[in-house]
Amino acid sequence: MNFTIGSIKCFTQERNEIQREAVKHGYVILLGKSIDKVLGFGKNDSKRSQMLVQITGTLRNLANDDDSYSRMCKSKVVQKLIQVLEKYNSPTNKELMQNISRVLSKVSLDSECSKAIIATGKLKFLADLLCDWQHQTLFVQRIAFVLANLTTYFDEAREQIGTADQVKKIIAVSLYFFETDQQFYEDELRNQGRDFSPRTADKIANQARVVEDTLVKLIRLVANLSTEEQFIESITQSGEREMLNEFLTWMVSTLQRKKIGKSEEFILNSVSCATNLLFYDTPSKEVMFDEDLRIKIFKAVKMYVLETTNEELQIEAVRVLSNLSRHAKLCEEFVSDRQFIEALILILDHTLRELVFYTIGIIINMTMHDSPRAKLCQQQPLLVGKLTDVLKDANIEDMDLAKVAGKALHNLAVCTKQEGATFSWSSEQIKRVDEIVTNLGEELDSIMDVANEEELEEIKGIRDLVNALINDMPENTFDCPDAKCGRKFKNQGELDKHVQRRHGSVK
């Protein structure tokens, strides 16, 4: 039996058409039955392990064909592989463990196979394997890939793993790989100028790539788990907040030295993970992360707002910044960075709606704090115009976007009326905003009669905002032409009287 299956493994190793034919002729079902037979065969674990190596190696080959997935589910091969993984979890069975990890990593891309893995109830065991086998990089990479796939799409998967003990283990393994990745980076710096043979250079580069790819899978797993509030609660309640801080600190430090041309997937997953973790870091809650770490995250992420053609990364970057902008200290940091503010204003011209929406959210958050709001208003001539464009384009077709644009304009309008304000809207800006807001209000009124109850609630919300903006918008003023005077008047007549009375005639 061992030699027979070994032969099948050899001839199905490379050619896709042979793998396809083998699947079509029931080899997956045959191999599933072989697992049952081997597990009940004799008492010599060593011999059974050898036969299972051949069986799982063959299944690894056949898993290259997508049609094998349904057959693995039907013959319960997926469940049997988890059973073997648990029974033969030992360093002496390294090849067997690697074979199974490769099969599971492939089938975890299939929805039905994923459900079969989850149904075993063994996801905690798989998470334990990450820690037990952390020095076997490829094994960790594949198991982390499996868990990341499952936790992306299935709530039950996140619920099975999202306990304090499992999360701590996953973070501990991640920290190990961050340190390993850092070591490769330091070695690269030390070895600059050294003349390695092409074979040695390729080997080192490949090892570094494997470590980075493993980190990508682990970070993605943490990001998925952190979409569940129980993830954060399990960490904070177990007193392991510092561990979470250490994870985020390492991730941001690593992010800062990665280049998008070589490490785009790492950067995207890291920024996405930071977004999820920072969601829980609100001013109203007990401090999750300290101010220095938040500022470090800002400096690491802000460059991806514009300096990338990857729109998904741009969106994740503004989501991170949106979460950070809930903190007054970070808003101070934002408005002190003129290039960053200019980048936000540029984004308001972007055609990607989600990117514009989150960017306006950042602007709104900055205008919620007195000092950042005043500094931002000093940038306002261009900002007011861009927000007005967004409001006009959104109109009633996109009420959510119109609402945030209107809210940002209202906050800026209120800012100009504060005592001691040294800035104002131009007459052209006031006229344009007034026209657009008035038209929007009329359109909202026109659809109220045909709107249902739910739509009326939405319409009323934006109508109230329109009314507030009309009431609080700066008034158009007529400025004294004498620069030393600086007086402002509500109409031309009052200005003319002032000029005649105070200045006689001003050219």
How would you describe this protein?
There is one protein chain. The chain is mainly alpha-helical and 507 residues long. It has a domain at 1-120. It contains 27 helices and 2 strands. A two-stranded antiparallel ribbon has the order 1-2. Strand 1 and strand 2 form a beta hairpin. Helix 10 runs parallel beside helix 13 (198-225) and helix 24 (399-416) packs parallel to helix 26 (453-472). The radius of gyration is 31 Å and the shape is elongated. It starts with a helix and ends with a helix. Keywords: Metal-binding, Zinc, Zinc-finger. GO terms for molecular function: zinc ion binding.
Runs in which pLDDT lies below 50 for 5 or more consecutive residues are none
Number of helical elements: 27
Shape designation: elongated
Helix content: over 70%
Order of helices and strands: HHHHHHHHHHHHHHHHHHHHHHHHHHEEH
- Strand tally is 2
Q: Structural class of the helices, strands and pairings?
A: mainly alpha
What characterizes the major β-sheet? 2 strands, antiparallel
In percent, how much strand structure appears in the residues? Answer: under 5%
**What strand line-up does the widest sheet have?**
1-2
Which value, in Å, is the CA radius of gyration? 31 Å
End-to-end separation in angstroms reads: 106 Å
* Average residue pLDDT: 89
Summarize the model shown.
This protein is mainly α. The protein is about 75% helix and about 0% strand. The model has no long low-confidence stretch (mean pLDDT about 90).
Question: How would the blueprint of this fold be written?
Answer:
Blueprint lengths: L1 H10 L4 H9 L2 H13 L5 H18 L5 H7 L2 H11 L6 H14 L3 H9 L3 H10 L4 H17 L1 H7 L2 H27 L7 H28 L3 H9 L3 H17 L2 H19 L12 H11 L9 H14 L3 H9 L1 H10 L5 H14 L3 H8 L2 H15 L4 H18 L10 H21 L5 H20 L5 E2 L8 E2 L2 H12 L4
Antiparallel strand pairs: 1-2
Helix pairs in contact: 1-4, 3-4, 4-7, 6-7, 7-10, 9-10, 9-12, 10-11, 10-13, 12-13, 12-14, 12-15, 13-16, 15-16, 15-17, 16-18, 17-18, 17-19, 18-21, 19-22, 21-24, 23-24, 23-25, 24-26, 25-26
